[in-house]
User: Fold these one by one.
Assistant:
Number 1:
Amino acid sequence: MSDDFYRAFEDRHRGSRELIKSRQRIYLPFIKPLLSIYSDANALDLGCGRGEWLELLKESGFDAQGVDLDDGMLAACRELGLKVATADVLVALKALPDASQTVVSGFHLAEHIQFSDLQILVQEALRVLKPAGLLILETPNPENVIVATTTFYMDPTHQRPIPPALLAFVAEFHGFARVKVLRLQEASAIQGEWPSLWSVLAGVSPDYAVVAQKNAPSLASTEAAFSTEYGVSIQTVVSNYDITLKELLNAQQALLQRTSEAQHNAAQAEAKARNYQQALELVYNSSSWRATSPLRWGKEQLCQLRKLEPIIRAKASTIKVIKLAVGTAQTFVDSHPQLRSQLAKIARRLGIYKYLRTHYRRWSIATQKMPTQDDAGRSVDGALIQLSERARNIYEFLTLPYKKPPGCGK
Amino acid sequence: MKIVIDMQAAQLEAAALVRDGRTTALVLAITQLHQNHEVVLALSGLLPNSIEPLRSQFAGLVGIDAIRVWRAPEFLDEQGQVNTTARAVAELLREGFISSLSPDVVFIPDIPVEFPEIVVNVGAFAKRIPTVVSLPFDASNLSIDYGTKWQSGALAQIRLADRLIAAAATFIGFSEHLDIATSKMVAREEAINTDINAEARFCLAICETLMEEHSYRNPDLEQLRLKRPKLAYLSPLPPARSGISDYSAELLPELASYYDIEIIVAQHDVSDPWVRENCTVRTVEWFLHNSDAFDRVLYHLGNSEFHQHMFPLLKAIPGVVVLHDFYLGHVLAHMEAQNAPPRQWTDALYESHGYEAVRRRFDPTSWNEAMWEYPCSLSTLSSSLGVIVHSEESRRLAERWYGPGAGCEWSHIPLLRTPVAINDEERANARTVLDLINNEFVVCSFGMLGPSKLNHRLLDAWSQSTMAADPQAILVFVGEFPEGNYGDEIRARVRNVKTTGRVRVTGWADAKTYRNYLMAADLGVQLRANSRGETSAAVLDCLNYGVPTVVNAHGSMADLPEDVIVCVADVFLASDLVAKLELLRKEPTVRRQLSLRARAYMESNHEPKACAGAYALAIERDYQQSACGLPELLGKLSKLLAIRGIDGVDMIEISKDIDYSLSQKALVRNLYVDVSAICHEDLRTGIQRVVRSIIAALIQNPPPGYHIEPIYLSKKGGVWHYRYARQYTQSLLNCPPSLADEVVEPDAGDFLLGLDLSPIYVVEAEMTGLLSRWHAKGVSIYFVVYDMLPVLMPEKFPNDSAATHLRWLELVVRFDGAICISRSVALELSQWLSKTSPHKVDSFIIRDFHLGADIAQSNPTRGLPKDFERIFKQVVARPSFLMVGTMEPRKGHSQVLDAFEMLWSQGTEVNLIIIGKQGWNVESLVEKINNNSQICKQLLWLKGVSDECLERVYGASICLIAASEGEGFGLPLIEAGRHKLPIIARNLPVFQEVAGKNAFYFDGLDANSLAVAIHDWLLLHASGTHPKSDSMPWLSWEESTQQLLSAIALPIIASRANNSPVL
């Protein structure tokens, strides 16, 4: 068991070195321009640990030196042939001459030291940096709620979380010419997925860095890096969440409205159909109707003989009534098979059965929608992302109002 | 003849819904008979389980892209109820799909009317495709139930067929229900019932006769004159200064007798009097909104800015294209430079010629060449309904650039020339005006001067001929001097009368002067080099005026009949040209005959009326024959969907189905290369180095007829799919990432090569059936297999990686083939396959190739450790044996260390140098090394060294030990060979394969056997008889890629051979 645990731990450990290095590449656009300014580019990493950053600096062409109190960690650096010294960071920093470094950095150092020491550190860094030199301080980002409430305290040696604005202000206050906050290491959000509450709590970049530059006649070479935006802020996450929530609410509102309209219509239709049925039943059941039946028959024959017009007119008006009723009544009729057959009977008697039937059918077909997909809940936008360029053009054409297609022969 | 066979009945058989398999047997028999025909099998995607079985049954009989699948929304629910809307969509989709295949005849064998999942409809589309339907043998029971709506619907469709095949007995029962003309009924003879081959012949014969009845016949031009369809004519017109505008001005009056023409122009005014008098002139904007008003659209495309408005227009409103220039690079580059619309040129380069062309466009040293070199015309041509060219040369160029058959459906219409009547008096007048004496021998060369007109070669020949010294002979260049060196050179030579004789250059000649020279000339000489498919108007002018003319056989001039022109070779000797000039000077009879024949030829071929007639025929034919499945389908569908109120996700699904079903009709095929892992993040692993190198080699040198398309698996939007890795590929080629990563929809006949190893992505994607869908559609899928180690020795790998690898392998062998990085891996794979899925052994292709080893382009790292000099001293102090590679259980470090301990204890003076970082699960070994008494003495461990350091150690050692217990390939052996470092290797098949006799091999897993081997080797070494590695063979990445391609390409060639050349 313990062997497995050790192995798993080792694996993660080994992987994390590469991972950390790959993450730190984000600083290369800041520091690389300095190489073209200074031929001897010294860099100092405070609290260098296992030396990933030192390695990266070295690969990039810097003469990098690391300082750390943990000798065990430094062994790894020495093995890799990295320049390191066992020393207290402030002591080491204070020992350096003015304007001797191009880069001073501290990764996950600021949260380990007293705030007063942090101020001294920033002050000293400014002193030892050459013009246009860079101070990089990376630390957990308390804008991330999970970081601020939980993960920050996983390390008992952590002092207090430092908000990005505070750390940026410290650098500004002590006289750095240009200060930039980089939010880092956020999990890449899956596009098309709705922002969840979890993403609000944990989606903000869990780390951030302040990159501060010492004044120089021209800071143009690092302009590009400084003008790029990095990471996810709490504002972004929250506003994404709010927008989605609002959309959802709107959609639900619309749905509710339509449902209540539909219910209203159905109720009306049901009432109408019932009235209609009652009226007809009344007529049929009335004894006078039955009694006058022969009479009516005779009259009908007469009508047919004399003038057909009134019958036709009567039939037409009945059709009109039914036409109006049938649309709204259909749902009701469908769910009452007895009523349906009764209506059919009546219609046959009235001689409009055929007409009614075809219209009933046509109407059913016209309202028969396509079978909804399994993933009916999917948004149109999500599905659109998955269309090829041509399929997208086809979709766009199909959603246009109907138009004769161009360019096809007769 | 192209026969499309509707396979739904066969699909029911394959899905075991129908018992006997007769239909499949019939279609099999037809495909074996089809010598003169192209047979395309149309499969319904609504019967998905039947597709793969049918594909394998027909493999080898028809090309992979002759099996086409269409797909539509499901219209049956679980209870078997038909959704009428979805069914109507499916019917339209199938018809549009069949239309898009442009068949000559459709055959629906054994129409299975009793199955509701079958979709059949006949002739719903405008272009009537002749259709033959045969009824199943047991069709007599059809009469049992006509009640269901579906059956009566299907029967209604049967009535629309042009021929109905059934047994005579069936017809009797049938005629009661079907009002079908007896002329359409064909009774199947009884004898056929038992002989499937006879039936196949019978059915084919009926298809043939029907097709002949319906074969395309040219329309009657007189009828057309009466009808005069409305034609939109897009071309620059005078005063625009372009040859095409003059050409159109000449063509229009004649073409107007067949069409009611409106002119669409992007210029402010039109000066041609005939056009102003007779045609309505419209703007492009107006045309965009009123294209419906026209029956025909004709575009005149050329390589100048006068045509730029036509490119976007052609995409929106397809029409017939007159391609005046085969090369369109300049106008497209001009548009891109003006950003109107953006990326026009880049997109065209990418679509027509692939990534290498895009790379060159963004390389500042080659973009200008790219503009000249690439035609960029493919996307334009594929959105046209038909193409008209003026020379055979354009068709030859199309074949050369876009593959066999690319231009074979194009119409060739000669440039038009109005015949001229010239009498001797006019000739004499012309000479007087031009200041030429009557009996002077006048040789003319027409057109602006320039290097490609070979004016200097004509001057060479002229000065070598007797005419240079002849005061009665004169050479006239009728045209303008170019700027720059060439102009100066010609000018200087012309001035030198002594050597060149009498030569005149007119400078820019107006129409009248030009005509006078044509009348005055005794002889014309028109030479060309580097032509780009265009027709030489000057040669035609010479012929039209009856000027006897000498040309070189270059480009379109080579197509002129030999009795109307005198021809020297394309690349000719000056002496040849001199000989022809002298001959024609001496022989007035030859000149007279040439002159007469030239004029007769022009009159019969280039006469405007005849050309306009040819235009009308070509336009009518193209409009009749072009597959307009998609536009018509979209028109009909949007009407249907509007009525039935379909939108949103359903509409998207329908769009997807259309995109899936209707082929893109591309001339080139795609070789998709999976780069899923590397384009996500380049971790610089060994495999990723392979991927990068092979992608680069493929793009630089793609197999002919294929586009290389790196693609990656994506889950954007929630469902796995492939996207074009355009951004990644462009960055790999140092281009700005201008192309978007669109979703990939492959076509039948395309290939997918799983080059990058990303087992987790692939397995997950296939869980949604992605790769199976590609395969069912007709995409051949191959994977590169790097090793079988996690499966063969799982104990030496982390648990999950072995399991993942196994699942991945099981997936790989479900498709077409695997290309392994060595023969040994191929062998291991085929052994594994015969054990796990013996039924796949025959059909699954396993091949191998070797990796490249030129690391020149792979950026070697630099830097030496601080204490390197001390280390180096130790390395050279004793004979040093080297181990290179990450320390992992299977690499054999333990055995080597034990062997050396034995040697050391015996007092052997040797070093063991281990180079490589600590890997997974080797903690006890590390401890053993660190606690070894010889550490830092005879045992050295260098971790994380640079290539530079490695290089130095290689040079100072005497032998490499390759002790790994399993490898996919043996790059360290090749590396050692390149440093001429001798090798002791474990006797693994893969090492034998890579190093052959260039290494010393050892067997056994115990320390002793290795110690003995090293001891033996040392003895051999002392006498200089150990195996040397100096002649170790290795490949460049280019060679490696060629091996990989030939491993996949073999089946491509086979499938192509089965296809008609018309793609």
Number 2:
Amino acid sequence: MAEMDTASVPWTVASGNYSSRFSGVAVGAVQAAALKLRAKIDAIRAHAGDEGLSLRRVAGMAHWNPEGLPAGEVPGLAAVAFWAPPTLDPPDTDDRVASSAAHGFIVDICAVEVDRETGRVSVLDYITVHDAGRLLNPLLADGQVLGGFAHGVAAALYERHVYDEEGNLMTASLVDYLAPTAPDIPALRIGHISSTSPVTALGAKGIGEGNTMSAPVCIANAVADAIGRDDVELPLTPPRVWELLHDGGPA
Amino acid sequence: MKPPAFDYIAAHSLEEALAALQEGGDDAKPIAGGQSLVPALNMRLVRPTLLVDLNRAGLDTIEANSAIEETGVIRIGATVRQAALEHDPRTHPLLREALPHVGHFVTRNRGTVGGSVAHADGAAEIPLCLAALGGTVVVEGPRGRREIAPADFFVTHYLTTLAPGELVVATTWPSPAPDEGVAFEELSLRAGDYGLAMVAVALRRVEDVARDVRVWVGAVTDRPTALADVEHAVEGVSLTGASAHEAGLLAAAAVDPPGSIHASGAYLRHLTGTLVERALLRAWEQAA
């Protein structure tokens, strides 16, 4: 596999990490290249008359003895493949593109407790269920979920930029910019439902960063429900929740 | 950043440490755990030309032997680590409750009790507990040894009555009184952050009324501060939800903290009242 590098190839929508394109799109090309390579290995073994020939020997033949390869085979064990799902079109004349091959789905449910006197929000339970199609690596998938969730909780309960009237950033250090640390992140229960995508090579959809988007909404809705307000603004730090509870007199 | 250049002396006794500090004068600073001093050095907020390392000066013992216990006092050497006290059965229950709020797990492994007291941050937990329990700060210097009450030691943020050349060598802590209940309450925005407000309460429950009531607050004030009005209001009272709430309202009225980008002054006042109310009720229940 080649690293994408705009110093050597032009930028494309596959140059970076957009729209969960790895498991949905890049993996299709990886699979196609791997299948090509398998066919070549099979052909070399057949040509040598030994179907059990070790991969080490096959590779040695391909690299050091190109004369021994089947007619028409190029030296080396490498393959180049292109793959695109039917749902992706190239950018239009206005340079617009829908870059997602397939969409994953998330459902989040949480229970929160609000301390009416201090304004502290405690997340008592949080369950997230993902449909990312076939999970290519379940451990990595859960890692994506946990990392995205931590970012989501940070947006919901901790992090914000504050500027003074002259436009100076008042939260320029990690003392004042409240990036949460491990003890601040609530426990998370993760579930998966895998309905495979018909349009991606291995049936996988995207999962990256999903809870970054869902957790702020889920926590905000739960707090809004708990305090009977529909005008909550993130982040819901204790002083800001207390102001919501007490503006217009103590609740 | 890196700290400015400084000389370094590892003192192997209290006498060596005092001599080095005296020689270094105003430009010398003691270092032990370094959890506040080293960041300040690296940001070049302080520029001492000499650091006197106290870690080998023999100030790391906890004395609670029979001679001392007769007077009901435990003496904690200045370089005893905060983490060591967390799990020591001799540690006063109020301090044990407060210690998990001091910095983080890893900073407590290095941070010292004496360092926290000498640094005198207005939002530091250990000075607040020492003041609330009526302990003392033991210092040694060119004029000999002094034992100072916290009210006469803490002046304001980062300022104490420690004289030039003097060193905090220990703190003394009273043993828990009979029928005593204690509670420590703090709210911080993140785990391990400085508290927005913190409260230490100690009281005795004698014939079902509160006696020897001590209500001290920090972080909303520039040093550990007793709330005398609250103490008087609770003294001799049988604590209930209603009387604790009244005491909380008095506490809220007694402090006037400035607001910040994180919290308004009104919030901090209300928070102080809430924490006082909760600490009083917990201490009262504990004393039963």
Number 3:
Amino acid sequence: MSGGGLGWWIVPLAVLGGAIRVSTPFLFVSLGECITEKSGRINLGLEGTLVMGAMSGYAVSYLSGSPWLGVLAAGVVGIGMGLLHGTICSLPRVNDIAVGIALMLFGVGLADYLGKPFIQPAAPQLPSLDFARWSSSPDVQNAFKINELFLIGVVLAPFLVWAFRTTRWGLILRIVGESADAARALGYRVIPVRILATCCGGFLAGVGGSFLSLYYPGAWSERISSGQGITAVALVIFARWNPQLCFCAALLFGGAGALGPSLQAVGVHGGYYLLNAAPYILTLLIMVLTCSPKRTLIGAPAELSITK
Amino acid sequence: MVDEIATATAGAEGAAAAVVTGEPAPRRWRLPAFLGPGAIEAVAVPAGALVLSLLLFGAFVACAGVNPLAVYRYMAQGSVGSWFSLQNTLTRAAPLILTGLCTALPAQAGLMIIGGEGAFVIGGLFAAMAGVAFEDTPAFVALGAMAAAGIAAGGAWVALAGALRHWRGVNETISSLLLNYIAIAILNQLVEGLFRDPRSLNKPSSPSIGYDHMIGTIPGTDIHWGLPVGILVCVAAYVLIRHTTVGFAARVAGGNLRAARMVGLPIGWLVMLTCFLGGAAAGLAGMIEIAAVQERASADIITGYGYAGILVAFLARQNPLAIIPVAVLIGGIGASGGLLQRHLGLPDAATVVLEGIIFVAILASDAVYGRIPWLKTGGARG
């Protein structure tokens, strides 16, 4: 990006465009985690799922030539990781947070191992839609190139709000997350619901991962995700388990992540690494400001281990 | 951890029941604590999980067309097969012992901290700063200052996660992981900016702490003094946790928060203390990495020892003494990576995959405690 005639206006524009680009993986992981946590389990392994999704999406896109097939494959791999987490956590006395940590390390290691042959070749990328044909400025056009996955995410968030509130499935999910005993009394089987919810979460996290390798930054490498998965898990807490708020929070985090590169584009080089860490610092600050030791968080599923 | 407290209470109840029912009095001599009830199970279950993980890993590499038996042979050769590889294993074990404590000590107070990597990095960074500042002093002064800086910085880093947990209710697992990324950002920022040695052209790094101020190796070996230091710290941590009032109070807070509140324990300070000590151990590991291996701070101190330390702590069931052999085991797996890469063409991430499998298997094995009849000789567990 060059400064062009826009001068310093490029910064807010690039942050906006970057927010849309960078926020997509946050959005998908947080929506997925939202489903999982509504069932009363927390999956910290989504960081590993994200990286596995990025690797498998890229590999399948390269081998088949179709990026959308890659997205699907990433989702399927995510289901696999979710199934692993859900099943192990269903064993008696197994702690879901610890299993999440283990799967985070396992997923990252496995993606490194299997993804080694795919570091060099270039895989077909996901297409994007131009929303700024009206503008002649390449910067504006660049900022409004929006990926279809982001649009899917935009629709998915209100859909989930509606599904949680009004559908039978959403109700069952919420009962299981609020009180396992009540769910059992009503004749619902708690463990299969939780495993299914973890699989759904894994699917969305895998899709979010494929966005990383197939659109932005747009190549598979070992360090493709540095904590986006875990930041997204924290984001769900901040968004109070509301998918619509997850969407807003994801945009905010995306904007924070885009701040560093866009300032660099206009020639501000100081504090480059610290600016890149802005999403983590922001997450921590928001958690400090919004959490409280004295009361349970509003909207928290009662069965969730982190809020007990 | 919770189940250990439960075991302790169950054991006490059992003893009380024995007195009431008039069963024969227990033998007068007692087994040491680490051979107490459930000891057989406490060794057999993780060992079983380890064997299962090795089999799964064998199946995994077999899918990639590599002979699993060759993998096991090279792993044995690369970890303990020669004096050279044994030294490599022990050198890798030294930082793992200390980063393992970073998860195990807060776990006594019921916290699940995974911030060892951040404490390691920040400890190393501050130790390097102290080393540069004390460049003109005698070696023991400089090393003392470095150790103090590393311990204080690493301890404060993890204590921050503990404080946020206690006073703000912020989940410590997530915050400590976020602190890892922030620590790495601070390191990169400083070694590329304020704290950069202008002579480091290709790879930004800090000035050297001075070769004369580095920690040497144990005479006759290539193993640096970090290993004995780590073992001493582990023994001290064990004594603190098992044989002092403070340690007992921390375990009560970790086992039953409500009971700890009822008896008026200072929970916030116990949480802060265990977090500080855990972080201090990881910070000390970072200092040793600078003083014994790297000589200067750079992106090279982002080693992954902090993450492997989480595995060490869980595999040792958060017991500081058990951390020592487990760290040697995990160090051995890491040491064998080079041979697997050279002779079998496996990617360097192969050892990380194995560690991941072990981690998952160990956690899943929590489910079988107390369910295998022939292991219950020492007393019921959990």
